[in-house]
Design brief:
By secondary structure, the protein is mainly alpha-helical. The chain has helices at residues 7-11, 14-35, 42-51, 64-76, 80-83, 85-104, 109-120, 123-128, 134-155, 161-172, 178-190, 201-223, 227-237, 245-255, 261-273, 281-297, 309-323, 326-351, 357-367, 384-387, 392-403, 408-413, 421-430, 445-449, 466-472, 506-509, and strands at residues 414-418, 440-441, 458-462, 473-482, 494-502.
Length: 517
């Protein structure tokens, strides 16, 4: 007769340890969102603007994350804490699902604990869950798809193809990178003993479900001259052109904490050589296939592969558990987990803004780390990820100072324009306090939203060069300057121009202003 578990055994079980690590991760985000957080990130401002224009697609991303944001904002508002609640919950859920993958792969308490530590304290995964974007949902959907694929193979139940297809379809409506995972899983199954499962009606139903869910974004792109493909092409040849396959591979070491290297290398090796994982070798093939796609692309950001690492953490936990016994498992493995968590804690300030900004700068200098960016741009005091959380209210205030000097008649005809979505979206959000009208812009979806009926008689322009304005307006002058020393250099001391008399009607000039990147 099986004896009931004691309270101690329950609290030290694999699922309990995983849950505790997930709660620690969630608590870290909630604390930061309550007492830190700096300010709205550039992309968060843009997503809020997109949520005001619900559609089946956007120039630079599919629509699922925007619909989620619209629902959350409609219920709870748009404070920084609320905005970052969804990614915080998604990050904690990813830790739990990673632990479930380890268990589904046959891992016990040690394997599940190592998997949760790896996923819970990965700096890049923490960063993904620190701001609102499609990335935190992307990682959760990838990880859930992997768990579903594991159950598909371990049970032999072809009906699991349908939920797998639904997850892939929803994932693609969030971020199309999950299609790399779909390709990898198909390749993995083809080169495995399970290839016959792909010839069943269940596999067909799963593929159909994914296609139906993703179809609206495809249709949107067709109706908008393949805007997303144009965006990807421009980004690859522009701001990401300095990225190389070598840098992509080297950066994997840094993104997930260098001390996690043994764990995820054990995951790759274990998926091919560990006896408990022999049934799941197709997952190793899938991961290598995704990696190959990103390397062949030539200009992939290292973070694009981050969503695949929960699989490696889970497989690594199972492999280490299988390859260790006795005192090594009882003492060295827990010691490694503690070291992994402890070293990760020193990297947390680099992933989310838990420190006051001046303290962060001192901390960065102590570690000998220079600010970084993946977009080949000049940097200031802060890395781009943090610098893009500063300066937005100041820009709206500077624009408002110029706008409020206009006569009521001029205000009625005045357009407020900027050429990047961060500045434009900042005016939309923070300008409400000053009674500013919605801004117009030529960057990504702002160009699609058009000139809103403005003619160009009076235009306040945030950013750019005075000479360019003087060439196309009858008069143009610098009317204010928006300063923010913590911003990116190109976002500090941004001029605000008051321009009158556009020489060409704005509606006629609009087609030439398009900027997708």
């Amino acid at each position: 007769m099986h004896r009931p578990e004691t309270l101690r055994e329950t609290l030290t079980s694999g699922p309990a340890i995983v849950m505790m690590i997930a709660l620690v991760r969630l608590g870290l985000h909630l604390w930061t969102n309550t007492f830190g957080g700096y300010g709205y990130f550039r992309d968060e401002l843009y997503y809020l603007a997109c949520a005001d224009h619900l559609d089946l697609g956007y120039v630079d991303h599919p629509p699922l994350s925007i619909f989620v944001l619209a629902v959350v904002r409609g219920i709870l508002g748009e404070s920084l804490f609320v905005l970052r609640l969804v990614p915080a919950l998604a990050g904690a859920a990813t830790v739990i699902v990673t632990g479930r993958i380890a268990a589904a792969l046959g891992g016990g308490r040690t394997a599940q604990a190592l998997a949760a530590v790896g996923a819970g304290f990965s700096p890049i995964l923490i960063a993904f869950s620190g701001i609102y974007s499609m990335n935190s949902l992307d990682v959760l959907l990838w990880t859930t798809a992997v768990l579903t694929a594991v159950r598909l193979v371990s049970t032999g139940d072809g009906r699991m193809f349908l939920p797998l297809g639904i997850i892939i379809g929803l994932g693609a409506m969030n971020k199309i990178g999950i299609l790399w995972l779909a390709a990898g899983l198909v390749a993995g199954l083809i080169f495995s003993p399970y290839r016959s499962m792909l010839r069943t009606r269940h596999a067909l139903w799963g593929a159909a479900a994914a296609a139906v869910l993703f179809a609206p974004f495809i249709v949107w792109n067709i109706l908008h001259n393949y805007a997303h493909l144009e965006f990807i092409r421009n980004a690859t040849s522009g701001k990401y052109s300095g990225l190389t396959p070598l840098r992509f591979l080297a950066d994997q070491l840094l993104l997930h904490n260098p001390f996690a290297l043994p764990l995820w290398l054990a995951g790759i090796a274990g998926l091919f050589f560990a006896r408990p994982l022999v049934r799941f070798r197709f997952l190793g093939t899938a991961f290598l296939c995704v990696t190959a796609i990103l390397v062949i692309n030539g200009h992939s950001k290292a973070e694009y592969l981050a969503a695949g690492f929960p699989l490696l953490f889970a497989a690594g936990g199972v492999s280490i558990e299988a390859w260790t016994t006795g005192w090594v498992r009882r003492f060295l493995v827990p010691s490694y987990a503690i070291v992994l968590a402890a070293t990760a804690s020193t990297l947390v300030p680099l992933a989310i803004p838990v420190l006051p900004v001046t303290t962060y700068v001192e901390y960065m200098h102590t570690l000998g780390i220079a600010p970084g960016t993946s977009e080949s741009k000049q940097l200031g005091i802060l890395p781009q990820f943090y610098a893009d959380m500063f300066g937005w209210p100041e820009k709206a205030a500077a624009v408002a100072a110029v706008y409020n000097r206009l006569t009521p008649e001029e205000k009625a005809r005045c357009a407020i324009f900027s050429d990047n979505y961060g500045r434009t979206a900042a005016i939309d959000l923070f300008g409400r306090h000053y009674g500013l009208p919605r801004a117009i812009g030529n960057h990504n979806n702002y160009w699609l939203w058009g000139p809103r009926g403005y003619t160009g008689e009076v235009v306040i322009i945030l950013g750019g060069a005075l000479k360019d304005k003087q060439e196309i307006f009858a008069s143009a002058e610098v009317a204010a300057v928006a300063s923010s020393p913590w911003s990116m250099p190109y976002e500090n001391d941004v001029p605000v121009y008051l321009c009158r008399g556009l020489r060409v009607p704005l509606a006629d000039a609009w087609a030439k202003l398009k900027h997708y990147e």
